[in-house]
Specification:
Helix 6 runs parallel beside helix 7. The two termini are about 30 Å apart. A four-stranded antiparallel sheet has the order 2-3-1-4. Strands 5-6-8-7 form a four-stranded mixed sheet, with helices on both faces. With about 290 residues, it is an alpha+beta fold. The chain folds into two domains: about 55 residues, 2-Layer Sandwich (Alpha-Beta Plaits), CATH 3.30.70.790; about 190 residues, Aminopeptidase, CATH 3.40.630.10. About 30% of the residues are buried.
C-alpha cells in the first residue's frame, strides 16, 4: 500500500486538510475573521462550558486536554474571559480559502497530461474529474467502463468507474468506494482517480492486482455529493459547504450526507449546525450506491 502512494504528487494538502475538518457553516458564508485555536481544557467542568459556547471542533478528539477549535472573534474573547488558555493557530480561515480555487483553476492540467502525475498536483472541478475518468476508460477499454449510478436532487449524474475483467456486471462480488460525500473535502476527490489509475496501469505487471480484479468488480465514485461539490466551486463563500443541495422548503438547503446514521440521529450539540437526517438512506446519493451493490 505504501508503494501505491509513493509518488511525486504535490497537491496542496496542508490547507485543505485543515478546511476538511469539522467546521460547520450552515450556508454560503465567508469565513472572514474565523480563527482556529488550541485550547487547554483542564477538566470536565471547563469542557461543558466549552461545549455550551457552540464552538467548532477542528481536531480529531473531544475531551479534557488540548483541543483544536474554530471560533469567531467574539467566541475567542469569551473563551479567554472564562480563563481558558488559548493559542492561536490560524488567524483568519478565509485567508487560506481565497487563493485555493483561483490557484487550482490557474494550474488546470493540460489535456495532453491528463493521465500523468500532473493531474494530482492541484484540485479539479467535477467536469475535469469526469474527463479524467473518460480518458482512463479510453486507455483501458478491456478493464474499465464509466457507469451511471444515480442522480442528485438537482438532476446531475453520479458517475463511477467500474474496473473488472469481464463484461457482465454482477457476475461476482463488488466493492464500492466513494469520496466527497462531504463536498468541501476536496482532497478526497484525488484518492479514487489515483487508485483507478494505479490498478489499470499496473494490472498487467502485478499479479496481486490481477487476482483482486479477478475476484471482485470495483466501483469507484470520486465525487458522491456532486451538487454540493459543484456548489463549493461555483458559489463565492461556499467553499466550506458540507451537505447536499436539497431544498428543505423552510428557507434552508442541504441534508447531511452520512449514510451510517439514520432518522433522528445527529452529532452532539456543539456540532448542532449540522442537519439531521429525514430518513435512513433517504438521499439519492446513497440510494444510488446501495442499489449498485444490491
Amino acid at each position: 500500500m505504501k508503494e501505491m502512494f509513493d509518488s511525486s504528487i504535490k497537491a496542496p494538502l496542508s490547507t485543505t486538510l485543515a478546511l476538511c475538518l469539522l467546521f460547520p457553516l450552515s450556508g454560503a458564508a465567508r469565513a472572514q475573521g474565523y480563527k482556529v485555536v488550541r485550547v487547554n481544557v483542564p477538566g470536565e467542568a471547563a469542557l461543558r462550558e466549552l461545549e455550551a459556547m457552540v464552538v467548532d471542533v477542528w481536531g480529531e478528539k473531544w475531551g479534557v486536554g488540548e483541543l483544536e477549535v474554530g471560533v469567531t472573534p467574539a467566541q475567542l474573547l469569551t473563551l479567554k474571559a472564562h480563563g481558558l488558555d488559548c493559542r492561536l493557530l490560524i488567524d483568519d480561515v478565509q485567508v487560506l480559502i481565497d487563493p485555493e480555487r483561483r490557484e487550482s483553476r490557474h494550474n488546470a492540467t493540460p489535456a495532453d497530461k491528463l493521465l500523468s502525475d500532473a493531474f494530482f498536483e492541484t484540485y479539479h472541478e467535477y467536469a475535469e474529474i469526469l474527463k479524467f475518468l473518460e480518458e482512463l476508460v479510453d486507455a483501458h477499454p478491456s478493464l474499465a467502463s464509466l457507469v451511471e449510478v444515480g442522480h442528485t436532487v438537482e438532476g446531475r449524474t453520479i458517475h463511477a468507474i467500474r474496473i473488472a475483467n469481464d463484461e457482465k456486471p454482477g457476475a461476482k462480488p463488488g466493492v464500492l468506494y466513494f469520496s466527497a460525500e462531504h463536498c468541501r473535502e476536496w482532497v478526497t476527490t484525488m484518492v479514487l482517480p489515483f487508485l483507478a489509475r494505479h490498478i489499470l496501469e499496473r494490472y498487467s505487471q502485478d499479479s496481486h492486482l490481477r487476482d483482486l480484479v479477478g475476484h471482485v468488480e470495483w466501483y469507484l465514485i470520486p465525487v458522491l455529493n456532486v451538487d454540493g461539490y459543484v456548489f463549493t466551486w461555483e458559489v463565492p463563500g461556499a467553499r466550506l459547504w458540507r451537505k447536499n443541495r436539497r431544498d428543505n422548503e423552510d428557507g434552508t438547503a442541504g441534508v447531511r450526507s452520512q449514510p451510517q446514521l439514520g432518522k433522528g440521529l445527529g452529532w452532539p450539540r456543539f456540532l448542532g449546525q449540522l442537519q439531521r437526517f429525514h430518513l435512513p438512506w433517504a438521499e439519492p446519493v446513497f440510494r444510488a450506491g446501495d442499489a449498485r451493490l444490491a
